[in-house]
Amino acid sequence: MTGPATVFDKPTDYIGKSIPRSDAARLLRGKGRYVDDMQLPRMVHAVFLRSPYAHAKINAIDISQAMKLPGVVAIYTGKDIAQHVEPYVGVLSHLPGLRSPAQYPLAVDVARWQGEPVAVVICASRALGEDALEHIRVDYEKLTAVTDTLNALSPDAPLIHEEYDSNLAWKRQVEVGNLEEALAQDDVVVVEKQIKFGRHTGVTLETRATVCDYIPGDGQLIMYYAGQAPHMLQFILAKHLDMLEENVRVVAHDVGGSFGIKVHTYGDEIATAIVAKLLKRPVKFTADRLESFVTDIHARDHFVDAKIGVKKDGTIVGMGFNDFTGIGPFSMYPRTSAIECNQILNLTGAPYQFEHYHAVGHVVFQNKTLMCQYRAVGHPIAMAISDCMIEEAARVIGMDPVKIRRKNLIPDDAYPTKSTTGMRFDDLSHHACLDKLLEIMDYDALLEDQQNARGNGIYRGIGFVSLVEVTNPSPMFYGVGGAPIASQDGATVRLDAAGALHISSSVTEQGQGTNAILQQIAADVFGVSIERVKVTTGDTATVPYGGGTWASRGAGIGGEAMLLASHALKEQVLDTAAVILQAKPEDLDIAFGEIVNKGSRERKISLGDLAKIVYYRGNELPHDLKPELIATRHYRVTDFPFVFTNGAMAAHVEVDTNTGLIKILHFWAVEDCGRVINPQLVDDQIRGGVVQGIGGALYEECVYDSDGQMQNASMADYLVPMASEMPEITVAHVETYTKTSVLGAKGAGEAGTGGAPAAIMNAVNNALEPLNCGLWQMPMTPERVLKALGKI
Amino acid sequence: MNKTAQIELIVNGEKYFENVPVRMNLADFLRNKLGLTGTHVGCEHGVCGACTIFLDGVTARSCLTLAVQADETEITTIEGYETDKNASDLIKNFHKRNALQCGYCTPGMLASSIEYIEQGNPPDRKKVKEHISGNYCRCTGYQAIVDAICTTIQERQSR
Amino acid sequence: MKAPDFSYEKPTTISDVLALLANNELECQLLAGGQSLMPMMNFRMASPGTLVDISNVSELSGINERDETIEIGAMVRYRELELSEIIKAHCPLVAMVLPYVAHAAIRNRGTIGGSIGLSDPAAELPAVLLVLDGKIEITSEKGIRLEPARTFFKGIYETSCEPDELITKIILPKKHLKQKFGFHEIARRHGDYAMAGVCIAQDIDLKVRVAFFGVADRAVRSIAVEKLLSGNSDLSEQLIKDAQNALNDIEFEGDMNAGPEAKQHIAKVVLERALKEMKNE
Fold first, then answer.
1. In whole angstroms, what is the distance from residue A757 CA to residue C150 CA?
2. Contacts of C108 in chain B (CB under 8 A)
3. pLDDT confidence of residue A2
4. Residue B151: helix, strand or coil by DSSP?
5. Across the A/C interface, how many CB contacts are shorter than 8 Å?
6. What's the mean pLDDT in C47-72?
7. Do A28 and B100 touch (CB under 8 A)?
8. What is the pLDDT of residue B159?
9. Top CATH class, A35-143+207-255+262-295
10. Which of A95, A726, B25, C85 lies 20 to 30 A from C254 at CA?
C-alpha cells in the first residue's frame, strides 16, 4: 500500500520526539529579526496622538505649531487619513444581527475610547515625534463615557453610535429543552451564582510593530509586521487601500509573542501603511507599552448570571446563564468582537451530558478599548461557568467533585456524538484524562493533607476542570461568514541540489515552535536528517496561501499539509530514483538523505546525487521524465466544523485567610491533543497557557474609572504572572488521534488558558468551604478574598 | 547646553566612540546606534526586564540608564554572553530545555540567570525564581527557565 | 515613551552640584540611580531642564562607621548595602528589608539617597529610617543641616528637602546589643511595592517605634501602637492583639491593589507577623 496512510506504519525518527527548536539557537545569541530591529534607509517614525478621553467630540485639530518642530516630516489627522482608506466594518454574516458602524484607522469626528488615535506625526525619530505631539492642539468636547456594561443597556444611557437605538451590538439565545420547567421539578437542586470575569489583555512582551515600505515603480507595498496572519492582512490592506492584492506583501519574521493580540486590524498599523504609500518612504510604528495597554485588544470582561440544576444523585438536569460582555465602541475587524460570547454560548457545559440548556448572550458597546479574540477565546468563561457551577452543586448535595464529573462526563465510548448545544465531537477522552489526572496528582493524599491542614488553621483547596478546546477550525469558523480568513493551509517541500530540504508553510511562528514541528514532520515523512531542513514561514511573497496562526491550528492543519507535501515529494523522488536505479519505486525508501532498498536498507544513492542528476545532468534521464523535486499540498478540515480536544486539570491552592493571598501549590494538566509531535513543545505550550490562565484568575485586570480612563495602564500596575508566584506544572497526555487527518494531531495551544481559571476558582472555593464563604469574581485579588471572608 | 555628548565605552569587548543625544537611553543606543538589537525593549519603565544588560559587571535595566551614563563603562549584552560571560553551557541548556518561546524576554532572562550563577548561588528553585522575578516571560510559564538555570549550576558543580 | 529633551551635567564635587542646583533657570533635577526618575521621564511625568548626574561625586559614596553611627553616602546603591559587612553588623534592619526592595537589577542601580529623597509611600527605607530615628544630612550653598527622619517625609513624593538642597548622607545609629528589630511586608508578587509593610525597633529601654509603609501618603509611625508596645519585655499574644486593635491612628489610603479598609486589615496582619517573628527570635 502506498499513500500517506503508511506514514505511521514504521517507527518515526522525529515525530513524537522532543527535538530542540532550531530557531532558538539564533534567538539565544541575540540574532532575532523582530520588526523593531529593522532600520531601512530614509526610514521615518509614525507617532500617534491618542485621545485622552474615552468619549469626546473632536471639534478642531491645530497642527501648525507642531509642524514647525525639528524632525517633523508630516502630520495627518483622522480626517486626512480617512481620505485614503475604505472604512471597515466588523460584522460577519454567520453572526446574524451583529452590528457595528464603519470604522476608520484614526478617529474622525468623535473619539470613542481613551487611546484611540486622532492624529499621527511622521518624524525623524520617535523621541522628536513625541515632542511634537505635545504641540498639537485638539479642541475636544468631552462627552459622557459609557463604561459599565450593564448600565450601557439602560434606556437612558447615552448612545455611543447615534445611528443605533441602543448600545447593544449583538444578542444571541440558545435554548435546548426547557430549562425552567426542568429546574422546577421537586427532586432538582438548583444553584445560582453571579460570576464576574475581569477585563484583561495580552501583554505580549514585544509590542505591536510594523515597518511599511512602498516601492514606487513596482507599486508594491511591503509591510513587515509582528503578526499571526500575513495573508489576511494582505487582503485587508489591498481592499482598504485600494490596491491589487498581489502588490501587497506582508512579512512576519520573528514575533515576540502574540496570543491572538496580533491577529486583528489596528488603525495605527493601517495608517502607517497609508503614510508609507503617501510619502513613498519607509515608516516604522512601534507601540510603546502605554499604547499597548489602551490599544491592544482586551478580552473577557463578562458578567454572568448562572444557574444549574442537579438531582440528589449528581445527575445534571440542565444549566443556563445570562452573559453580558462589553466590547468597546466597535466590533473589531475582521473577526468581530462577538466570537467570544458566541463561544461561551456554544461551549458551556460541552464536556457533559445533560438535556436542558438556556443561554443568552449580550454583546454591548462601551467607551473602552476594543475587545476581541485572545488566547482561548471564550473558553475560560465557558469552562468556569459549567465547572464552577458543577462543583458548587456538588458541594450543596455533598458529593465529591470527581464523582459528579464521572456521573456526567460524556462517556469515552460515546463518540461520535454531539453536545447539548449541537457541537459535533469525535475522538475525545474525558474519562481517560480524568483517570490520568487523578493518577499523577494523588488526589487521596491531597484530601488527607487538606484535612490535616484545616486542623492547623491552614486552608488548602483542590479544584478541577474538565474541558474541551476548539482547534483545527474548518471554514465554518470565519470563512463562511465572509471573513478574508483562510482555514486551509499550504505546505511546499523542495529538494535542492545538495540534497537538503526547503520547506515553507502558510502557518506562522510566534515562539510556539511551529517551524520546529514542520521541520520534524518534513524530515520524518520525507526521510532526511532534520539538520538538512530549512524552513520559511510568514512571507506572503514566498509561502503557500493560508490562514496563519489562530485557534490552535498550526500543528493540526499546517502540520497535515506538510505531511501531505512531504509524502508527495517522497513519491516523486522515489519514482525518479527507480528510473535511475532501474528498480521499482515500491522497493525503495528514503532514509536520512539516502535512497535505500526498502527491505535490506542498503544505501543506493544519496539525495544530493539524485538531485544533481535531475538539476545538472537531465540528459541522463529519459526525455519523458521531468522531475520537479518540489511538491505543494493544501489541507483543510472537511468532516467537522472544528476538531475539539479535551483535557482535565487540577489546581492545589492555599488561601491565606489573614491576607487574602492565594498561593498555587501545584497544578496538573492532562491534555488530549491527539498525536503529540514534540512532547516538550506541547508540554511548554500547556504550561505557558496555564500560567496565562493563572494571570486571569489571580492577577490581571484592566481597571477603569467611571470616566473610561484605564487606571493601571503600566506594567507596574497591571499585574502579570511572574516567576516567584508560579507553581510547578505537571503535564501528561492521553493521545486519541483525530480521524480527520493522517497526522492525527489536534491543537494544544490554548487549553491551559481555557481551563486553569476554572480549576483555580474551584480550588479557592474548595479551600473556603469550611469558612462558609466563596468567591465568584476573577481576578481573585487579596482584597476580594478578604471581602468574601468578611474580614473587611 | 549639553544636549549631546561624546561617549566612549566597551561593548562585548569592542570599543565604541559615539555622539549621542543625552536623552537617549542605553537600550536605544545599543539597538539603534550600535545595531546590537539582541537587547529588547519591552516596557521602557524598568518592570519587564527584557532590556537587562551587564553594566560594569552587574545587571542593569538599559531602559532606565542613559547612554551618556554609560560613558567609560564596560557593557555586555546577549551578543556577548557566549564568549564574554562564558555562558555557552547556560545557552545550551536554555536551548535543550526550550527555556524560551518567542525569545523576546531571552536577553534579560539570560542576564539575570548569568548573574545568579556568577554569584555562586545554589540550584534552589525558589531562589532562582526570586532572582528572575523581575523578568517577565509571557510564553513559558517559567518552569523551563528555572530547569535550565538549575541544570547549568548542577553541571558546573559536578565538573 | 521617550524622555523629553534636557541638558545633562555630570559634576564631580558637591560644591559643583550645589552651584547647579542654586541656579533656578536650569530647572535642575538630580539623577542618582535613576530607577524611579527614569520611568517618570519616559512617561513624560518628569521634565527636568537640566539633569544633574551625581554618580561621579565621590564625596557621596561610601559606608563609614563612626563611634555611634553609620554614615551612608547618598549615592550608595542597594547592592552595596546588601554586600556591606558594616550594614550587616550594625544596621540589621536595613539588611532585613533589602531583599524585598524590587529586583536584583534595580538594586544594582538604585541608591539610598534616591529612595529617601523620593519619599515613595510604599518604599521600605523611609520606614526603616523612621524607626531607627535616622538622620538625613542635607547640604546646600547655605550650609549643612541634619534633618531627623520624623520631620523629613512630608507626603507622597514630598520631603523637606528644598530644590537647592542635596541629600549628602544618611546617618543611622548603630545597633545596641539588646536592641530588637522586626519587619514584615505583604506584596502580591515578589519584589512589588507592598500592600502593607511594617518596620519595628525595640530599644534597650523597651521603647518601641513602629512605622508602616504602603498604607498612607508616606511612611508613617503609629504612636498608638508604639505606646501600647513600649515598656513590655514580653510580646504576649494578648499584647500583640491589643497592638493590632490600637492601629487606628493612621489615615489609610488605598491604591490599585487594596482600598483603605484592606490596607488597615493587612497592616494589622503584618504588625502581628513582625511582632511574632521578633518574639521567636
1. 46
2. 55, 58-60
3. 42
4. helix
5. 66
6. 98
7. yes
8. 86
9. alpha beta
10. A726
- CATH number for the domain formed by residue range(s) A4-32+488-635: 3.30.365.10
pLDDT per residue as tens, chain B (159 positions): 579 999 999 999 999 999 999 999 999 999 999 999 999 999 999 999 999 999 999 999 999 999 999 999 999 999 999 999 999 999 999 999 999 999 999 999 999 999 999 999 999 999 999 999 999 999 999 999 999 999 999 999 998
Q: With an 8 Å Cβ cutoff, are A782 and C258 in contact?
A: yes
CA distance C3 to chain B (A): 6
Tell whether A693 lies on the interface with B, counting CB pairs under 8 A. Answer: no
Q: Do residues A297 and A317 touch, judged by C-beta distance below 8 A?
A: no
Range of the structural domain that residue C124 is part of: 59-173
Q: Is residue C225 a contact partner of residue C212, using CB atoms and an 8 Å limit?
A: no
Indicate the angle between helix axes A230-240 and A267-279, nearest 10 degrees.
Answer: 60
A679 at the C interface (CB within 8 A)?
A: no
Q: Which of residues 178-217 of A touch B (CB under 8 A)?
A: 202-207
With CB atoms and an 8 Å threshold, state whether C188 touches A791. Answer: no
Beta bridge partners of A285: A210
- Give the pLDDT band of residue C208 (cuts 50, 70, 90): very high
CA torsion sign for C37, C41, C44, C50 is positive
* A contacts of B42 (beta carbons < 8 Å): 205-207, 289, 715
User: For residue range C76-129, what is the model confidence (pLDDT) as tens digits?
Assistant: 999 999 999 999 999 999 999 999 999 999 999 999 999 999 999 999 999 999
User: What mean pLDDT do residues C253-265 have?
Assistant: 96
Q: Give the architecture-level CATH label for domain B82-158.
A: Orthogonal Bundle (1.10)
- As a whole-number percent, the residues of chain C with pLDDT over 90 amount to 98
Chain B residues in contact with A29 (beta carbon < 8 A): 38, 78-79, 81-82, 91
Provide ipTM, 2 decimals: 0.98
Beta bridge partners of A646: A468, A672
Q: Which residues of chain A have pLDDT under 70?
A: 1-3, 5
Sign for the CA dihedral angle at A5, A7, A11, A12 comes to negative
The CATH classification number of B4-80 equals: 3.10.20.30
In angstroms, the separation between the Cα of residue C190 and the nearest Cα of chain B is 7
Q: Give the chain B residue whose CA is nearest to the CA of C109.
A: B60
Check if the beta carbon of residue A240 is closer than 8 Å to that of residue A105. Answer: no
Strand-strand pairing, A588-591 and A56-62 = unpaired
From A27, A258, A724, residue closest to B103, measured CB to CB: A27
Indicate whether C2 belongs to any domain: no
A418 CB within 8 Å of a chain C CB: no
Q: What is the dihedral of CA A753, A754, A757, A762, to 10 degrees?
A: -140
In terms of DSSP bridges, do strands A283-286 and A248-251 run parallel, antiparallel, or are they unpaired? unpaired
Average pLDDT value for residue range C180-193: 97
Find out whether A437 and A449 touch, Cβ atoms under 8 Å.
no
The residue extents of the domains of chain A are 4-32+488-635, 35-143+207-255+262-295, 298-475+642-788
- Please indicate whether, in this complex, the C-beta atoms of C188 and A660 are within 8 angstroms of each other: no
Q: Are strands A356-364 and A316-326 parallel, antiparallel or unpaired?
A: parallel
Residues 6+ apart with CB under 8 A from A464: A387, A391, A401, A402, A405, A437, A648, A649, A650, A759, A762
Pairing of the two strands A777-778 and A188-201: parallel
> Would you call A638 an interface residue with chain B, using a CB distance cutoff of 8 Å?
no
